[in-house]
Amino acid sequence: MNILERIVRDKRKEVDLKKELTPVSLLERFPLFERKTNSLAEKLKQVGSSGIIAEHKRRSPSRSVINQSLSVQEVALGYQNAGVAGMSVLTDLKYFGGSLEDVLSVRASVQLPILRKEFIIDPFQILEAKAYGADVILLIAAILSRSEIKSLSETAKDLGLDVLLEVHNEAELQKSLMPSLDMLGVNNRDLKTFEVSLDTSRSLSEQIPDDFVKVSESGISNVDAIQDLRSYGYKGFLVGEHFMKTENPGKKASEFIKALNS
Ligand SMILES: O=P(O)(O)OC[C@@H](O)[C@@H](O)c1c[nH]c2ccccc12
Question: Which residues belong to any copy of the Indole-3-glycerol phosphate synthase domain (predicted)?
Fold first, then answer.
């Protein structure tokens, strides 16, 4: 069993348990459930957007410690001041050390569009995302069938959330294209082997129709890479470790965006 299969197996158990404990009717009564969401796709399309989607990530299966010592609010404020287009918040606890409460804290601290970074396999997790203040959900093509992608993305759209669909190869891309997606993310990291190559974004770019906002994810650690990926049509750049592994992720992001604009 590869790591992705293990994560999904554990996620199924976690979600089934949570569904027993929390009725949907309760989530729908959370104060944040009614709010108007903030579109990341629209933000990325604006001229002059930095395109940076900065991630909060304490640890990962490929790197046991990234940053465990900062408060998520502090990181969020630093990112917002730096001029990022949006923020991604990992909510998986077992493998990434995150939680839905992290989304709630970020929502209370900044106005940025917030992506709930999670292994979504059930509509319940999309209701949670809305209830805790997220604006965008991630769907990962490697763990979902076409019909699951369709029903989950339609659920998200009905709630006013943006959908970022993540692919890693051509087969995943071809099986996933449908109008209920807003952004197409190409993960440069193979979630089964952890190998990273920006060539994945370069080679898949021309197969992504222009009606989707293109996002390149993972392994981005320099400004030149972004300039290069822009020439392939990418408008969003998901950056985690390069910022989070420093003592001051907001400062790192600020320097990065300044270099991008100079
Ligand atoms: O830390 P990096 O290499 O900059 O990567 C960030 C982000 O792309 C990565 O965390 C990620 C992309 N897709 C995911 C799916 C699940 C968990 C994590 C991810």
Answer: 4-254
ipTM metric: 0.98
For 20-56, the pLDDT digits (tens) are: 999 999 999 999 999 999 999 999 999 999 999 999 9
User: Is the pTM above the cut of 0.95?
Assistant: yes
Identify the structural domains of the chain with CATH numbers, from first to last. 3-261 (3.20.20.70)
60 C-alpha to ligand 1 centroid (Å) = 9
Instruction: Give, for ligand 1, the residue of 2, 90, 172, 187 to mutate: max count of ligand atoms closer than 8 Å to Cβ.
Output: 187
From residue 220, alpha-carbon distances to 100, 114, 157, 215, 261 in Å are: 25, 20, 29, 12, 17
Q: Are strands 86-90 and 114-117 parallel, antiparallel or unpaired?
A: parallel
Spacing, Cα 18 to ligand 1 middle (Å): 24
**Residue ranges of E strands in 96-142:** 114-117, 136-140
8 A C-beta contact, residue 102 and residue 89: yes
Q: Which of 149, 159, 102 is nearest to 126 (CA)?
A: 159
CA distance 141 to 94: 21
Of the candidates 75, 64, 89, the residue with the CA atom closest to the CA atom of residue 194: 64
